[in-house]
Amino acid sequence: MKVILRDAEKCGFTVHPFSGYIESFKQKSSDRIIHVLTPEEISRIKKTEQSGQGILRYQESYKWLLIGLSIGQRVSDLLNLRPSNIRKASFGLYIDITQQKTKKAVTVGVVDPRVIEILEHEFPKEVSQVQFNKEIKAICKLAGIKEKVSGYKNNPKTKRKELKVAPKYEFVTSHIMRRSFATNYYGKIETPLLMNIT
What we know:
Blueprint: H1 2-10, H2 39-51, H3 59-71, H4 75-78, E1 86-89, E2 92-98, E3 105-110, H5 113-121, H6 129-142, E4 148-155, E5 160-167, H7 175-185, H8 191-197
Antiparallel strand pairs: 1-2, 2-3, 4-5
């Protein structure tokens, strides 16, 4: 409603002066619960591939998940990566991205040997964001990321978010890659560089 009224005002229509005071229903940042995958949990995800715990069903999403945890980009930018975005240098592998949301050009160095192998020899096939979000929950469940944590889940009856305690894998969404990247690399690489990447 606020956006429509603001647009109407820009187009020269008269809007009620109180329209600027309409409260939005955004969740307060102090109420948010942020989940990240720790380095130990990421290691457990990688071990599911070696143990063959049914990960083959989710092979493409599994590869995208590992790449995402290594580069810290939004899911829209991650799933749009192509082999042409990869640049080899004598001292490493780089991914060049123009972020969709900010239109900013970003270069991210890849250091994880498994991710380098995926990018060079096993580049993943396309998956939709919906499929990816579903499958990364299943991957984390297979990896045993089941500790009970608090978080917000949609109640299908009320169609509202409610605070619940459930296994951590249930709260895993694509944004966890970005948050995990920022959390796991904070203090390990220079903060301005981390900010530039994310």
